[in-house]
Amino acid sequence: MSSPRRVDAVVVGAGFAGLYMLHKLRSEGFSAVVFEAGGGVGGTWYWNRYPGARCDVESMEYSYGFDEELEQDWEWTERYAPQPEILRYANHVADRFDLRRDIEFETRVTTATFLEANSTWHVHTDRGHDIVSQFLVMATGCLSSANIPEINGAATFTGSSFHTGTWPQKGVDFTGQRVGVIGTGSSAIQAIPIIAEQARHLTVFQRTASFAVPAWNQALDPGAVKELKAEYQTLRAEQRQMATGFGSRIERKDGSALDATPDELAQELQRRWEYGGLSFLGAYNDLLLTNAANDLAADFVRNKLRQIVHDPAVADKLTPTQVIGCKRLCVDTGYWATFNRPNVHLVDLQDDPIEAITPTGIRTATGEHPLEAIVYATGFDAMTGALLKIEITGRGGVSLREAWAAGPRTYLGLGVAGFPNLFTITGPGSPSVLTNMLVSIQHHVEWIAECIGHLRQNHLAAIEATEPAQEAWVDYVNTVASFTLFPTCNSWYLGANVPGKTRVFMPLPGFPPYAEQCAHVARSGYEGFALTMP
Length: 534
Ligand code: NA7
Known about the structure:
Blueprint: E1 5-12, H1 16-27, E2 32-35, H2 44-47, H3 68-73, H4 83-96, E3 103-104, E4 109-115, E5 120-125, E6 130-138, E7 160-163, E8 178-182, H5 186-198, E9 201-206, E10 212-214, H6 222-230, H7 232-240, H8 262-275, H9 291-308, H10 312-318, E11 330-332, H11 335-338, E12 344-348, E13 354-358, E14 361-364, E15 367-370, E16 373-376, H12 385-388, E17 391-393, H13 400-403, E18 422-424, H14 437-457, E19 462-465, H15 467-482, H16 511-523, E20 529-532
Parallel strand pairs: 1-2, 1-6, 2-3, 4-17, 6-18, 7-16, 8-9, 8-16, 9-12, 10-11
Antiparallel strand pairs: 4-5, 5-6, 13-14, 14-15, 19-20
Helix pairs in contact: 1-14, 14-16
The structure holds ligand NA7.
Ligand NA7 is lined by residues 143, 149, 164, 182-188, 207-208, 328, 349, 377-379, 490, 492, 497.
């Protein structure tokens, strides 16, 4: 038997987190190998190729800021970059920094076991790799494990079925077909208007109506891009001061929505609506803190919906009842107007639930909907799904699945007690999905690289979150979340979209205080972590 290969770090995933982690590790003189399940780089943007897939953070902000030449050279063409362009960007980064030579594609990590005798990780893949590394960095992405509901009869369907998050590379042509879309989250809302134009007939199966604000996507103005690039580093610094890691360039009100007069409120919300995108929720600082403030913004959007959708009965069904922003706000291009088309039909699953999938369609309580194709736009086992698919075993033979049986527990969203030298990029307990992911990814990669550098410099074998620090961190994340309206609905932030998943609010709202805390921990010699000698 040959002995396992040795590297300083194994990185799992070649999305934006894994790519930068590899680059950073190599530039600090560490050896690393990346394992990636996909056939190419890009992570989310490799897999999510559904029609209309596009980032809901503006392209000039959704990019790396670690290399000035890269950010000056790369040209985004649209305000919100479409999936193919973001994938080109990921490929450009991989080529530019010669990353591919250390990436193993079409390879899944199956097991990772911590060897206590020498504080290393022993990693196996489905292609027979056998590797020992001091560090294991999980860059597995927050939305990478598809959630496909178990519906009676699904396997009997004779048409074609797709999940938005594992879309065929060659694309899908729905021309002339009767198509059903299950789900009305961000992915569905982007795909539905385009599928409706192509398909003969589209039936949308809605379990929860979503709020949406317009993207007003357009080609970027080269003059404005040039101006922004001239002060790109200022923009990056501003991003780090924003709770969500983006949106600093739209003027802020900073007060309570409840202090605004009806005219001021209407004007401000209209201004945000016309500006477009997720910054709508930044109109006032209490929109996600009190129901009274939230209702004002929610009613504004509900009124817009009623102006757009012609049939009042359809508009009623499409009207969301939860807190706006409790589930991730959708950014759309013509979503509600699509329901004015004669070839589009909405089924409200609250009144008319799915009973079964049949060989020829979907049967709900009121009858059969004949279909040639079903699109599952049913989201992801978010934040923990991809991590728990791997058999990760820490100290004392305890698996991550056992350690997280009552929900994910981390310290800073970066480390887990019982799992030394394991790091989770944008892990649960960090701002991650509540922010511009590129800002959070960059922050975590740099923190991890500095931490690993500190261990090397001080000849330390391992770093591990302590139980008390982790306990206190979990409490802190829960407390912060409890001051917001986020826990008031069945969102994937809470794990509520996956049957049987423990309900824990996983991300931490607010980037700047979090980043400050991470910096403090590093400055203090890694307070809350135990550092061990070889
Ligand atoms: P989301 O936002 O989780 O949306 C999934 C949708 O699928 C949502 O409307 C769900 O309804 C619906 N769903 C899930 N399971 C079922 C079943 N069993 N039956 C009917 N409907 C179901 O995922 P997306 O891919 O759209 O977006 C994920 C993120 O990607 C997004 O937030 C952006 O950050 C980008 P529910 O609301 O759970 O009732």
